[in-house]
Write a structure and sequence with these properties.
- This protein has 53 residues and is mainly α.
- It contains three helices and no strands.
- It is globular, with a radius of gyration of 11 Å.
- The N and C termini lie far apart (26 Å).
Amino acid sequence: MTKIAAEVKAAAVARLEELRADGVLTAAHVRTVARSTGVSERTVWRWLSPPAA
């Protein structure tokens, strides 16, 4: 399992959430973050999902 710095994850998620809010988030954006952080695309999508209640 790849461990990334909390700051890196927070920055990536913040940017992806901005793209989502603007209605322009694509799988390519998620793929780019996954590749650059060394995690799976599924992991990045999980970061973006709302917290469990």
